[in-house]
Amino acid sequence: MEKRKFTITVGPSVILLVLLLIGGALLLRTGALKKERALTLEKTAVITTRIRTLGELTTACFYDEIVLNGTKKNPLWKDWNDHLVIIAHGTVRAGIDLQKMDSESVRFSGDTVIVRLPNPEYLDIIVNPSDFDIFAETGRWTQQQVSKLQDSARQRLIAEADYAGLKRTAYEGAMQAVGSLLTASGYTLIRFDHPAYYFPMPGEDAYLR
Fold first, then answer.
1. Beta strands in 53-181 (DSSP E)
2. Which end of the chain is more exposed for a tag (fewer CB within 10 A), N or C?
3. What is this structure's pTM?
């Protein structure tokens, strides 16, 4: 039996067509990858933008009465001290400035959204002149001496707020607010990358479901 040998001749036009097909496929794949990456970045940007629209988020307030004691020597009686007791009424507003968030504040790990909130801060410390009551006064006190005693109310109020753990309370409130926003947006797995100063309580779950 005679064997027939087939020879396939590929012309220049066919080679060109194949190269065009391969090049088109590579361009489509590159375009798909770019599109996928763009969507991922856009998704992160959208989440960050939504959170930042909350702006300055107040999540905890602290009210307190600060007792201020002043003592000075009586100018006429060396063995006698003059006393001044002032009660100051103050308010500390604590929360988080979400405008400080950037593109690194939100990222994804699989289906989980990981959010790093800015550190909580005291957004406002209010001690108005009308919030001072003179409880007791002996001797004569100048306005300058009274004002100097009143000026210490602000630092005392901050110290009391620190002792009460107001910043931690504000941070936890911010987690709940941002978590609710993300849940309403369709995300179910949310984790917060806590700042270094914050230590979750034993058994506290960092995920909001």
1. 56-73, 81-97, 106-109, 112-115, 121-126, 132-137
2. N
3. 0.67
How many CB atoms within 10 Å of residue 61? 17
67-101: pLDDT as tens digits: 999 888 887 777 788 899 999 999 999 999 988 98
- φ and ψ of 105, to 5 deg: -80, -15
Give which of 63, 39, 61, 192 is closest to 127, Cα–Cα.
63
Rounded to whole angstroms, how far apart are CA atoms 195 and 46?
Answer: 23
Residue with tokens 């947006």: 185
Domain boundaries, the chain: 54-208
3-class SS at 117?
Answer: coil
Q: pLDDT averaged over the chain?
A: 77
- Rounded to whole angstroms, how far apart are CA atoms 200 and 203? 8
Which residues in 63-72 are b (16+ Cβ under 10 Å) and which e? eeebebebee
Q: Tell me the C-alpha distance between 33 and 53, whole Å.
A: 30
For 8, 17, 18, the CA distances from 13, given in Å and listed in that order, are 14, 6, 9
Alpha helices in the chain (DSSP H): 12-52, 143-163, 166-184
